[in-house]
Structures are given as structure tokens and as C-alpha cells.
Amino acid sequence: MLSSDDHRPFNFTPPRYGPLPSPTSIRLLKIIGRKSRSCLNPLHHNGKLIGPPPSICGYPLIQCTLETFELADAPPYAALSYTWGSPGPDWATRGNCIDLTREDYGPATKWPIAVDGQLCFIRKNLFEALQQFHPDKSAEDVDRADPDDYNKTRLINAASDGRLWEVRRLLEKGASVGAKDCFGETPLHYAAENGHYEIVKELVSAGADMGIYDKSGRTPLQCALHRDRGEYRKVRKFLWDEKFRERVLQLHHKEEEEWQRLSESESEEDSSDEDDSDSDDLSDSSDDEEEPGPGERIFWIDAICINQDDLEERAAQVKIMSEIYDKAHEVLVWLGEGLTRAWRLQAAISRVNKEDGDLDELACKWRNSLTHFIKEGLGEHEDELPEDCILAPGEIEEMAHWLTRAWFTRTWVVQELSLAQRVRMFAGPFEFCWPDVLKFLSLMARVGYFDNSTFWRLDDGIRNQDGIGGDCCEAWKLAEIRLRTRANASEWALLDSVFSHDVHSSPAHKIMKAGRLSLPVILSLCWTFQSKDPRDKIFSLLTIARPLPESDRIQIDYSIPVERLFTQVGHQFLRGSGDDAMYVDSNGNPESLEPLEGLSYVQDPYIGPRGRMPGLPTWAPDFSTPHVTTRIWRRRFSAASVATPSFSPDPDDDSILRAQVLLWDEIVAVEDLSRREDSFSIDVPPWLELILQLPEAQYPTGECKMQVLCRTLIADHLWDEDDAELQERVKASFRELLAWELANEVEDEGLGEVCHPHDDVWNLVTAARNTADLSIKGQEGQQPGFMPAVEDINDIGKRLPAVVEENGWCSFHGPDCATYDDGSTFRSAFLRVYRKRALFRTKMGFLGLGPMYARPGDVVALVAGSRVPVIMRKARKKGKRKGHHHSDEKARRRSVDEGRYKFVGEAYVHGIMYGGALSCREDGDGFETIELL
């Protein structure tokens, strides 16, 4: 502790953590403001304020102290919910989209605060949050930039105009002397240029950087040399002559006490005219030392209040994390800086919430808004609301940046938001009213805002490059989980008007009103959420999930290897969630996680340098890695669901999963992927080559091969055997995709590079149309088939140059990125399931869609109880490859490997998805016990 006579705000010794007294002890961070009577406040000398707060690099130094409390004593505090890294959307900071000006949010850049008189370094996003929630922060943000006035702050304007008293007032409130306008000029630049000598002294005394450059490359001294205004000679000498400046500042500090005395006197007169209670609060000290005094705020912040280098303490604090957030009187959600036009969002939220009376009308207005945004984009009228729309283009753009900010995809915020008694949400100086946000999210969810097809249009699939950054609906998932976990009656009542209305154009799941969610359900809902330590994906959700039975108890221990923890949780995940679910269907039945459904969550990321976690069993889901494509598993499928599930961990090695499996078929050929790009691309000729290799003229189901190809490429997402009209729409949509993609494949009128020889493509098209696009009777149908004619492709090829010149060619949407798609077209359904998958052909003549790293020789298997088939690969025992082995040794090794497989992934195999492979078998007939490694 520093004495009240010591003017040093900190020393350079890193702060040290002492051990917490008990398992239920917590540290709380008290931020000391200007009016605090704490001995750590460097502005107090002999009981009096002595001047503006000290600054480092133009930022007022934040003074804090750490104090220890028992949770049972109910100390008054707010918990901060934020993200450690950059607060902006992940997709906006990668590749060509990276904003180099935001790199300072990385772990290598630290920002100083003073904790118990010692220097402590924190990440920038947290530093900005502490600035925002500092007790000296005025109700009116003193650093708010005015977009209509070249982004100038109040301090910049006061310094430019020479208003000395206002400059002092703003500095007292913590205004930043390092703030810049759109020209890169600081308050010191303007004060120096206009010859405001006294203001120049105030700013430099408060820590203003005299060597900073504006966008024209000028320092404040150069600004003073540029114009002969005011007391320019004094300003130039002060900024140029270091010795002169030191003497002036020494005299300046002696003037501070007199200035402060006059300032406080005037403040008391002003406050007495309005309300006498404030002055009483300042003069009376609180009897309860735990209560924050005047000019103080108390927070629980994980990065500071937990010794992050102590694994035992981290584990102990995580165990009581739910209590920490539950007992906080409020949780402050910090979305970070950078959302400069949040006023757009606030206006949009208010407008949408007033439309809760007719959700079909709201859905129509939303579709109109999105269509207008897609076709017209942004421009000078982006803030104007188009006719029959609910959102302006600028509001849609701002919403996309708001709801995909990093906070919404951080795993820990699931717990932090779910347990909060009171939620307050901030983006810079803007505060969002949580009840308004909750209602807004629910309304937009009901009208289809969070559908994948919507967001693929908004950002051309950027977020889907590797799944990181979310699947666009995390904000609503957070709200849903809070509704179930917190069970706040007023929040449920707020949404009654939303949930009681059906939206015919966009049917939605109904949230199941029940208690806390089971761990398997909450993990499935939070698959796209991220955490710095992969173990936190489990530990953070474990504390808000239903209690586990004793036999499944998971120990919160950061010394446990990640793959071991994921294996333990993987066994529970594969067992399903029983009768627990987030949603219920139209009949009121819970849509629970079924046994073995967890296998559909196993995907190899296979994106760039990222791969599957080393040491993790092939059957175990990687809970820390988001999916790169949509799961095939759906409740309408029943490939092996008639068989009784039978699976369990090996009693001697829980990394091995033993299961009853029917080894049904073998892959003999896989789609040629040599021309497939890693991100996403469509290459039609290999599809045609594969179906033309199928052995029979007709498929085993009696369908023509082109129809089989159509249904396989979308994993039967849109097809309905009882709806002939829908089938015709799907057929036409599929035919259109083939025509455009094939026209783009070949060189026509100098377009692009030749991907396939021209004649080869036409030969494939002709062969597919003549031999694979037949009706069940074997006659060419009178109606257009699934395969476009060569003439149709040529016609599109003639239109293609003009289309490419006007709109370009989109890998996701082909020739048209400017048409609203509600997810009912072949292309949109195809995009969901084809990414990172490939077609394959089996020995028995079936066509399937599976992981793109499946290969000939892999086994198509049916796991008893599973709704979809899976691909497995025979295990090979690792050993020496050189030399000769005795025949007995080879036989022994073959017997060891017998019945042992590696899991590759789920698959769609046309013709067996609805139980066709088991239709002539008794329950269990042909199934055998195998081991998945």
C-alpha cells in the first residue's frame, strides 16, 4: 500500500496473488475514481484533490485494488462478461478482411493499469471496458466522437476553441487526451495550432503525447509553427524547449491546488441547487467497508480476479463460477468498441418490436428488406427505410456486424448470460436494453433471420470457410439457453405474444419449458462457441447443466489431457439426452438428442493447417472444433433405427467404443476431387462420370440415375415422395444448376480456363441424358428430365459473358447473388450438405455422399440403432515395415486387427436411408461386435 503522502501511482513490481482463504472465496476488483478517499488515489493529498488524473500515452491511469471476500457474505459487485481478444466479428479479421488497426487486441499488446499501487498489464478489450465502466465516467460519454463533426470529441472542440475551464472539467471526468478526429488530430494539435498556451500546458500535464503525428504527418509543434495564432510564441517555446517546459510544469502543479479548490467550490454550489444528497454522500463515509464508497465501483473480472497461472485456483474458481454470476447484482455485457453506428440498431430494435401483433406481416416485411438489401446494397440512401420493409439496408449491415461479434461466440458467455440476475449490454458508449434485445431476437428468429440461407447471402459464406466465427444464430441460442436456465418469469411473459403466434412462412421450434438442460443437449446447442482452452468448452457448460449421476461425474481439473476429457464426455454424448430437449415438435414431443446421434457430430475439420485433435479416438467428437458442413442425421431417416442399439466403452480402455454393426457394403470409387478447391467449388463432370459407372441401367430403387444423383446431392433434404409438385420444382431447380455450372465449365467465347476438354463435357452430358435420365418404364419422358440438353447449356453459355461481366461468378450462388432464397431451392439445400463431402459408388451399385476423405476400400456400415449409415476404415496395427515376418506372426497380427475399425464419418446412401438394407432381416441378423478406435 502507498501512503497518502506518496504521489507515485504505481511501482514496476508485478502484482502477486496470495492464496484464497477458502474454496468459496473470491477476489473483487475495486476501481478507484477521482472522488474516492482511498489512500491509493494519487489525486488526494492531505485530504484534497490536487489535479487531473495522471495519464500514460494520453490515457488516464486506472487505479484499482484487489480485495478478498466470501461469497456467503454477499458482497456488492457487478460481474463483467467480455471476450479476451478482439471484440469484432471473427470473419472480419481474417484473410483480406483483416483490419491492421485492430491488431492491438492481440495477446502481445498489453495496456497498463495500477492494482494496489503496482503496475498490471491487461488486454486492450478489457482496458476499454474498464474505461467505459470507470466511476469517473460521466453519464454523458465525454469521449464520444461526433460523426457529424469530423469525429471530434468534446475535448477536441474545447481545446480548439480555447475553453480552458471546459478542458479542465473534461479532464477531470477522464476525457482522453489521445482521442483523434478523422484527420488524426488530437486536442493538443488543435490547442497548439490556435495558440492556446494554457490549454497546451493542461493537456501536456495530463499526459498528452507531444510527438504524435496526424494524418498529414504533423506533430503539435509543427501545427504551432504553421500558424501565428494566439500565444504562439509561448506554445512553440513550451513544446520545443525541454528545460523551459519542466520549469513551467513545476509551477503549473503548484497552481493545481488553488484551481481544484475553486473547482470544488463551484461544484458544491451547482449540486446544492439541484440535490443536496450527493454532497452528503461525499462527506459521509460508509459504515460498511464492503460497500463501494463515492467514486468507486466493484467488479468480478476473471482475467484479474483469478490467478490464471495457478491451475488449481482456476479449477476451484470454475467450480463456483455459477455462484459468482448468480450472486452478482448485475452482469455487464461488453461487446467492445467499434460498433460506431449502434444508434441504427437501437432504432431498428424499437421498430421491429412494435410489429409483434402480426408475425406473418413482419416476415413479409423482413423478406422485402433482405431482397432490397441484396439487390441494391448500400449507398447514399442506406439509412432510408424502403417501402413495405422493416429494416433499412444500413440497419441490416449493422445487425450482421452486431450479432456476429466475438462475444456472441465465446463459450463462457453462455454461463455468464444464463445466470445473470440483471443484464446490461454495452457496445462502446451505447447501452442496449436487454428486454428489448430479447424480444427483438425472438421476433427475428420467428421470421427467419437466423436461417443459414439468409446469412450466406449477407456475406457470401465467409463465416462458413472454416466454421469459426459461428453459424450466425448464436445470439438467439444464448437467449434460448437463458430462458431455460434462469427461468425468469418476466422474460417468458415478455415473449408470450411472440411464441403464441404461428408464422406460416417460417415455422419455428417451440422452446420446451423445463428446468436446466442436460450436458449433451447444451453441448449440441453450443457447438459453434469457442474457448481459448478446449477444456473450458466442457467446464464452462458443466456448471449450468443438469447435475450428472455419480458414475458420470466430471472432475474440473486443468491437468487432465484434453483428449482424455473429450473421450469421457464423448461416451455420455453418444448415449443421448433421454427425454431432455430444448425444443418440442408440433405434437409436443421433445426433440431430444438420440442415442448414437453423437456420431454425426464427428467431422474432420480439414481446413488449411487445421486438423483433427491428435490423440482423440476417431469416434469421439471434437467439442472444440466447429463443423464445416451440415450434419446428415435427420429424424426422418431410419437406416438402422429398427435394430436395438448396443454400444459401450471397452472395459479395459475407454478410448475404444464397442458397438453392434452390420458391415453392409464397400466403397469402390470416389468422386474425382483433383479440381475441387479447399474453400468451395462445384465440378459437375465427375458427378456424371460416377453415375455412368453404376452397373445397372436402373438404380436398385427403380429410379433413374439422374434422379438418384439429385436426391443424393441434397441428402434428400427437399424431396417428398407424396408431393409431385414439389418434386417438379426440385427437378427444375437441379436442372438449372447443372446448366449454369456446365456452361461455366467449358471455354465458350473466351471465358476462363478450360477445366475439362470441351468434347468430353458434351459426351458426358449426352450419355447422361440418353442413359441415366429415363423414367421408370425406361422411356424418355415427355416432360423435361433432370439433365439439361446440350442446346440448353449452349443457350446459357451465350448469356454467360454478360452475366459474368455484370455480377461476376459466385462459387456459392453461381450466376445470381442477388435473389432472395428461402432455402427451398436445390442450390441452397445442396450448399448445406455438399461442402467437404464427396460422392462415392459402392460394390453393390449404390450411390452415396460421405466425407471427402473417404476412399475405395472403406466400409459402409450400419450401427444398430442409428438413423444414418457410416463410413469406417479397417484398422492397421502400426509396426515395422521392413524385413520378413513369420507366417504365425502375420496371422496373429491379422487376428488382433480383426473387428477393429477407424470411424470416418456419417453418410447418405440412396436406397437404404429408410430401412431398405434391413427390410428382409430379423433384428440383429448379420450384426457383429466391432471396436472403433
TrEMBL record:
UniProt biased composition (Acidic residues): 265-293
ANK repeat residue intervals: 183-215
Limits of the Heterokaryon incompatibility domain: 295-416
Taxonomic superkingdom: Eukaryota
Record-given protein name: Heterokaryon incompatibility domain-containing protein
Record-linked SUPFAM superfamilies: Ankyrin repeat (SSF48403)
Keyword entries, A-Z: ANK repeat
Cell division as UniProt keyword: no
Pfam family, one: Ank_2
Species of the source: Botryosphaeria dothidea
Residue spans of biased composition, Basic residues class: 874-885
SMART domains listed in its UniProt record: ANK (SM00248)
Region (Disordered): 258-295, 874-894
Coiled-coil ranges per UniProt: none
